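Question: I have long wanted to understand how a fold can be written as tokens. Here is the record:
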Amino acid sequence: MGRYQRGGGSATAPARPLVRFHAPSDGEGLQALPVSELVRARRPDVQIAYTFYSPSAEQFAKLVPADFCDYLPFDTFDHASGVISALRPSALVFSKLDIWPALT
């Protein structure tokens, strides 16, 4: 949780809207990438946070044009609350059908 508090605060500006993309693994990341690139191109004022869950997605995540990028902690209400508090997203985008109950 500390990485979110440190990284979310230093990589994001609270006054600007933030769209958070969650793509758990490489396959979902491939689906989210063109959408995040389109958001970046059409709305340069919007910040992008990208979260993933699978260790296989760590290298792929470096290709995403994100202001903040990190693993998503286990889907508990405490973790989800901490992530949302640290990043304060304007929108949350799930890739594919992987919806996490606590995060949602």
Remarks:
- The mean pLDDT is 84.
- Residues 26-42 form the longest helix (17 residues).
